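Holo prediction. Input below; ligand is iron/sulfur cluster.
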Amino acid sequence: MVTVEFEPTFERWQAAARALLSDGVSPADVEWRERPDAPPAPRASKFFRVPPRFLELARQAATASDPTRWGALYDVLWRIVNERRDLLDDRGDPGVRRLHGLAAQGRREAEQAERQEVLRLQAEGGGAAAFVPADADLATLAKAAKQCRGCPLYHDATQTVFGRGPADARVVLVGEQPGDQEDRRDAPFVGPAGEVLDRALRDVGIDRDAIYVTNAVKHFKFVLRGKRRIHQTPRLSEIVACRPWVEAELARLTPETLVCLGATAARALLGDDFRLMRDRGRVFSTRWAPQTLATLHPSAVLRGEDAAAQERLYGMLVEDLRLAAGAAR
Ligand code: SF4
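Structure of the complex:
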């Protein structure tokens, strides 16, 4: 019998499972023991390729509170590698059924924890609020934001990426969060999505140097896939936690025109009822600006499935920004 002591996270389980597979240890011979301070498993001597679907389900199942989940995951993994690569197609298999059950439990528990965290933040005014200096100018806010620990996102990102632009900007654009390039270069909208935005702004005659550009969430949220950092949409609790920063920016700027780029920014500033594809391009008054509207995030253009789709999405972005340009004149 092999006893595996490991920090109870998906990544640490994955590393331990790889090492066990390399050594040919069957599930019946493994005892999984959670230990928060356990060191990572040694590097596996062999490489195993498994269906991405398994990884996705296992990642969700790993978040369930059932202590027996690790053994159940290893059992399915073992059989995928050693018996049937298409095991997940067999929905009648007890191990596969259990994996789906654990994944559903993990999702349910995560949603419940998320709801509780949002309620707590709303009731107690937690998150970034404690880090936002009162009556500070934009430069002071930007400096203070570097120290923010209002949610866990600061932990893995390189730095806080605050808004940029003149303090007297009449037009403010709010995006979702910094991306990989923005996180490295400490500036909003300088990566591929920033290039799309620059082109769209040029097309509608908005001078980027004259506007203020920021994000609803100031730290880059991602998961590591090998060496790549893959963007993750912020959770509602993270948006709520970070909201005091964008509120402080808007309170200092008092723009005439505010444009929310994408669903996350719209959700942060316009509420949960706002539906981007239904309500985009409608100009209305909010407490932030007399002319407020929302449009696609420029990264949505890049995600279009082919050139025609990208052109169509880009057309929507330009159409809405043209409204913003008109409103700002
Ligand atoms: S994402 Fe926002 S609230 Fe969270 S640590 Fe960063 S600045 Fe603070």
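The pocket of iron/sulfur cluster is lined by residues 127-128, 145, 148-151, 153-154, 160, 217-219, 241-242, 245 (CB under 6 Å). That is the main takeaway for now.
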